[in-house]
């Protein structure tokens, strides 16, 4: 699908290597008092290793963290966001290597290099992105034909139309008969004429998106399009399959596709667990006096225990006890049915601003999110993560639609993408959409970004009650 953009990826890789090398060489050889005692012009081992490692460092880190991924190449926010987060990590790696190899190197030289290199690489990226966008609009190489008219295919069409990177250009739809309702692109004809439609409309990508897709329907289409220079993709309805990720396994000559595999596994799972453990221990060491103050305030404000634990649905549907500071009266669960409201679509809203069950201290610790602090113990036990979908109560999860159960394919979190995107102002069904976006786009950098955004949200108090 992204074959057309391969030269631009190669251009980025080569440009990064050349720019980083030239900037370092220019600064090293620019002998001025600003840099103290510069590295001698006649560089010998191990100083030459700085040039070699510098040239490879950015390429290796950018590749490992997905900076060069095709699916981010044309999306400005993802493209620049991933570059920025990776560059911060690269700074520490590069500085650590330089100071280890050359302890007496000028610190100011390293600072100038980091700044100039960042600006140069960013400017180069923006220039390549601009060039690529102009080329995509002018040549229209990736004209898309969608086979089938259904809710799935219409969603695909809207995604293509709203694609800010102009990866594709939607040509139209093909189906067995004309649609009975408006569609976001022209109806070009029937499936029997698909070969001629592809030829006359300069189609380069065909997406098969029938809602009741059968293998027998796909085979003749693929055979008919074999002589044509088109890419063919099948878009299964993942919501109906309740599938976030899948794994292909081979048993003898048999290939099996696992539809309920862990969405975060392997090295990504290990890195997430390490981040959770380190961050939890650090937070406990810094906030233990706050635990004592909040506990005393709760006991003085109302009768009942300091902590409140409730059953929540965790990863893979496992039920666990989530711990919080008590912010409501002791019989709050018995009164919950009186406080449920519904949005315009009939979806339940269990959390409202005017909830008489919340105590005075509870209102404060909810607004500041301090009631969430004891969940650190759930994180240490491995029942939760710092970042993930919000763990829901079993009686709420019992009303999930099939596709909403995808959110339990990862550990639940203290904070998450929907909390920093709207917090309690969002209804349940929209919360789930944000959770699914997080799961599909998970990375350790995304977790760090959400944690930083959570600090901003907590300080603002927006959507917390």
SSE diagram, text form:
Elements: H1 6-29, H2 47-64, H3 70-73, H4 76-101, H5 107-139, E1 143-147, H6 151-161, E2 169-174, E3 187-189, H7 194-200, E4 205-208, H8 215-225, E5 231-234, H9 238-241, E6 247-251, E7 254-258, H10 267-301, E8 307-313, E9 319-325, E10 341-342, E11 348-349, H11 360-367, H12 375-380, E12 385-387, H13 394-397, E13 413-415, H14 417-421, H15 428-440, H16 444-460
Helix pairs in contact: 1-2, 1-5, 2-4, 4-5, 10-11
Helix proportion = 40-55%
Number of beta-strand segments: 13
Q: Which runs of at least 5 residues are low in confidence (pLDDT < 50)?
A: 32-36, 40-46
Q: Identify the overall geometry.
A: flat
Task: Give the domain tally.
Answer: 3
β-strand amount: 5-15%
* Secondary-structure element series: HHHHHEHEEHEHEHEEHEEEEHHEHEHHH
State the separation between the terminal residues, measured CA to CA.
Answer: 46 Å
Structural class: alpha/beta
The average pLDDT is 77
What gyration radius follows from the Cα positions, in whole Å?
Answer: 27 Å
Biggest sheet: strands side by side, in what order?
3-2-1-4-5
């Amino acid at each position: 699908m992204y074959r057309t953009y391969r030269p631009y990826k190669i251009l980025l890789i080569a440009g990064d290597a050349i720019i980083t090398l030239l900037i370092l060489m220019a600064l090293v050889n620019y002998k001025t008092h600003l840099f103290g005692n510069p590295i001698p012009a006649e560089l010998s081992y191990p100083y030459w290793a700085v040039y070699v490692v510098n040239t490879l460092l950015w390429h290796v880190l950018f590749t490992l963290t997905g900076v060069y991924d095709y699916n981010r190449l044309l999306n400005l926010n993802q493209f620049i966001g991933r570059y920025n987060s990776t560059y911060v990590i690269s700074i520490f790696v590069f500085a650590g290597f330089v100071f280890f190899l050359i302890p007496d190197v000028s610190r100011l030289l390293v600072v100038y290099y980091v700044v100039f290199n960042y600006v140069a690489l960013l400017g180069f990226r923006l220039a390549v992105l601009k060039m690529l966008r102009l080329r995509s609009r002018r040549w229209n190489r990736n004209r898309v034909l969608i086979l089938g008219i259904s809710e799935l295919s219409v969603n695909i069409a809207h995604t293509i139309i709203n694609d800010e990177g102009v990866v594709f250009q939607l040509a139209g739809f093909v189906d067995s008969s004309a649609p009975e309702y408006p569609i976001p692109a022209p109806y070009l004809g029937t499936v029997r004429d698909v070969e001629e439609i592809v030829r006359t409309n300069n189609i380069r990508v065909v997406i098969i998106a029938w809602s009741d897709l059968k293998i027998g329907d796909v085979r003749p289409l693929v055979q008919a399009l074999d002589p044509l220079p088109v890419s063919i993709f099948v878009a299964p309805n993942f919501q109906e399959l309740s599938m976030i990720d899948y794994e292909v396994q081979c048993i003898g000559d048999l290939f099996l596709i696992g539809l309920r595999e862990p969405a975060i596994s392997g090295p990504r799972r290990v890195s997430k667990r390490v981040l959770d453990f380190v961050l939890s221990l650090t937070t406990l060491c810094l906030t233990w006096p706050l635990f004592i103050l909040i506990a005393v305030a709760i006991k003085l404000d109302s009768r009942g225990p300091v902590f409140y634990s409730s059953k929540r649905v965790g990863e893979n549907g496992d039920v666990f006890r989530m711990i919080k500071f008590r912010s409501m009266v002791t019989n709050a669960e018995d009164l919950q049915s009186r406080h449920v409201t519904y949005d315009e679509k009939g979806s339940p809203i269990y959390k409202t601003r005017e909830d008489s069950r919340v105590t005075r201290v509870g209102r404060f610790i909810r607004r500041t999110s301090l009631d969430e602090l004891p969940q650190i113990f759930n994180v240490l036990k491995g029942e939760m993560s710092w970042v993930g979908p919000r763990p829901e109560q079993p009686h709420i999860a019992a009303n999930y639609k099939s596709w909403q159960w995808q959110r339990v394919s990862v550990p639940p979190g203290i904070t998450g993408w929907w909390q920093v995107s709207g917090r309690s102002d969002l209804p349940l069904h929209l919360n789930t959409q944000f959770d699914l976006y997080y799961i599909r786009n998970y990375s350790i950098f995304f977790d760090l970004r959400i944690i930083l955004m959570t600090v901003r949200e907590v300080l603002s108090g927006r959507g917390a009650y």
